[in-house]
Amino acid sequence: MSGFKEPSFADRQKAAQQAKQDILNKFRAKPGPDDPEVKQRQAEREAQAAARAKVREAREAAKAEQKAREAEAAALAAAQVAREKEEETARLAAHGKTARIFNLGCGPAQEIQDFLVRYGVSDHARFTLLDFNEETIRFATSILSDLKNRHHRGTSLDFVKKSVGQVLKGRGRKAEGPGGAQYDFVYCAGLFDYLNDRICKSVLTYFYDIVAPGGLVVATNVEGQHPIRNIMEYMFEWHLVYRNSAEFASLVPERAPADSFSIQTEDSAGNIFLEIRKPLNGNGS
Ligand SMILES: C[S@@+](CC[C@H](N)C(=O)[O-])C[C@H]1O[C@@H](n2cnc3c(N)ncnc32)[C@H](O)[C@@H]1O
What we know:
The protein has 285 residues and is an alpha/beta fold. The protein has eight helices and seven strands; from the N terminus they run H-H-E-H-E-H-E-H-E-H-E-H-H-E-E.
């Protein structure tokens, strides 16, 4: 038989009273705000909050700096590509030809906007712009068509919504781009930083195949010695694919002769430019 005895009402009342008393005692024993221990804990909490705020501030500042650098790098890359576009178009226009230009990962196509506004020779250019982002294609279509009309340009603009993967998968035996043509100038700015070596090499090989003899291929990458690379990687786990000249050169297609390409690194924002001029006799082999 169990030895348990049901507590009486008096027992329960006593226990409840004791519990209330215990709570009161605990409350009375609680140190007041002037207690040195309480003060120390409060100070510690404040120090921790201040340290967290400092880290937040540093992170925001680094983010802002990164944004500014990216904008500067994009603007410098755009300016250089715009110059090359003008030269290539003028070269072909001088022979009464239209320059066929293919831009992979076009984004808002700032350099094409500038080209339409500033250069009359843009009448002699035909662009194929490719991007995998629907909204980007819509924006580029709208702004470039608007500029073309406002500046009365005869420039031809074709837009293709596709990914790099789709382009590489869809390439056929024929050396032609997404518009079913060869191009005089093929370029990609600001996208290689996000792609691994294998894909970049395939893209460059594809570019080299679809560029006409005598035509130019240009690609940009942010260089390995980027000043805030370590901060970005440590604080945000952003891992862009930085490349130095030698690493970039290793992506040049095997069939491009050694004297057909060059790498320029003088850009202050950390861009490096790879240029491959396809020999007039094709692969140069
Ligand atoms: C950093 S932006 C560069 C835009 C522009 N070329 C410039 O220099 O300012 C990269 C662009 O590539 C596009 N993009 C990224 N990954 C892509 C992919 N796998 N296939 C096609 N486009 C891609 C993005 O939508 C974006 O518009």
